[in-house]
Every structure is written in C-alpha cells, then in structure tokens.
Amino acid sequence: MFGIGMPELLVILVIILIIFGAGKLPEIGGAIGKGIKNFKKATNEPEEIDVTSPSKKIEPK
Question: Disulfide: which of 3, 18, 20, 29 matches 24 by Cβ 3.0-4.6 Å?
Fold first, then answer.
C-alpha cells in the first residue's frame, strides 16, 4: 500500500538519528518498548470492577 522498502526505511532512520542524536536513541527505543508492553498487557487483561469502594450513606438531619 505505501511501498516502504529498505531504502525508504534507511532514509527514515537517518532522519531520526539526525533529529534525536545517537545518545537518545536507546532511551527512545526503551520507552517505545515499555509502551507497547503495557498496551499489550492492558488489552489482554480482563476489566476489573472495583467492589471495595465505600457506598455513600445518607444521614437524616
């Protein structure tokens, strides 16, 4: 659909390297990896229902 091949990927990687620098790339990669891991974990877990929340009592005046 988009026709992204090896030359296009190399150009994108070079642009990212120029923008962020070589020192920041491991930090960015780690943050992206943690984000993907947390997203997958959240989508695989069933929804939790909070049954421990206190109910409000209405006190007579």
Answer: 20
